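Posting for a labmate who doesn't have an account.
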Amino acid sequence: MTPDGLTMALRTNDPGRPLLTWYDDSTGERIELSARTLLNWVAKAGNWLDLEAAAEPGGVLALTVPADHWRAVYWALAGWSRGLTVDLTGGAGDATVGLDTGPAGADLVEPAASLAASPLQAMPDAPPPPVGTFDDSTPAITAARTTYADLSAAEIAQDARVLVEHADAALLATVVRVLLAGGSVVIQRSADRSRRDDRLAAEGVTQVL
């Protein structure tokens, strides 16, 4: 996988098609992002990494966001679109993003490495300039020892609806493989197993990973 190839894959999905559906069974939340909306979030995060964090290919994006949170998905995708290594261990990075755990709810705090205060929502919607190609052996995720080559599309049907049941760094790698293959993803956080069968039917899931 190349960073530019990831952005192109998101662009070529049906813009209105649900691409990422996220449940948090501990709070009752359900978030659904179309291909257009997910690309918009990835573009904004990518522009923040480019314009505010001055992150360059080979750098590290430290996410203190749970891997099974929907926001972790678009930040990881944005990092990979910029050729970065995603660190989920809480270590220091060239750019750091966290979640507000206060009473206002889980919303993004201003990333710590910002060169100037600038909310993510203020970033441009258009994807930042492509970063080009580089060695596929570059680490994509530190903890999982996953390289960019490991993120290549899996053998998944073009219109597959995939329930991803990991809750660690492997979840993000699986998500990007599904998206590159043209599929869509359902994620459950704090999954209530008693709801699983009904959810599989309601979401039209065709594959579980």
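Reply:
Got it, the structure tokens are right above this. Helices lie at 3-12, 35-52, 70-81, 169-180, 196-202.
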